[in-house]
Amino acid sequence: MNYQYSIGCSLTNLKGIRDFVRTSLKGHGVPEVEVSAIVLALDEMCSNLMIHAHHCNPEHLLELHIEVDNGRTFVFEIVDDGDVFDINSFETPTMDNLVHEKRKGGLGIRLVKSIMDSVEYEKKNGKNICRLTKTVN
Amino acid sequence: MVHIKRLQEDGADIIAVIGEIDASSSIELDLAIAKSVGEGFRKILVDCSALEYISSAGLGVFMSYIEEFKDKNVTMVLFGMKEKVMNTFTILGLADLLHIRADRQEAKQLANELSV
Questions:
Q1: Domain of B85?
Q2: CB atoms within 10 A of CB A114
């Protein structure tokens, strides 16, 4: 099964992204607590991209693809044509550092890496593809 | 979308967070807490019973006050969290850094104990 969604880079659209992910996962037998975690991870990735790669310009579009392999493995792709914002290139900050430096970023990266099995980047036809994979037991 | 209501009870400021906190709405939470601190409250209770969702932007707001509250001797206790919301705090280990209690009564009690 494939699901697709396209949306402008405005933070007020994050709600729509969460609804899309939640609706797409429905009927695939994913436990509620896992659904919530996955929804959160996608929100974090999209808000990072909107802020850091697109400066919240609502005319810039993000495309989301969700592919369900065998009912267990879910592949989420976020496609855009902005600057690459590779979370793997950031060292995951420790919680102590986050408290001490009053950093409000960094937490999202920790969340995504905890929730998803892998985060990969690819450049294809001039577009950036960020691919998140999650296998649900 | 988030709605924030404040009410005062036994010298504590209770901030009720209703709805969803993400990168577009976390500023509202930040402003409410800043206002409470600015008004001189030493006990701040955050009622999360109607909080349906929180992303790192909202968690970051709570985190950003930890040191300031230590310096100013302010106690903040979160309470009434739904399981799905609590899970987000748990993934990050935030339950160890913030004071979280099951209900208003326990939250009040902890705030009173800590602010002696």
A1: 2-114
A2: 13
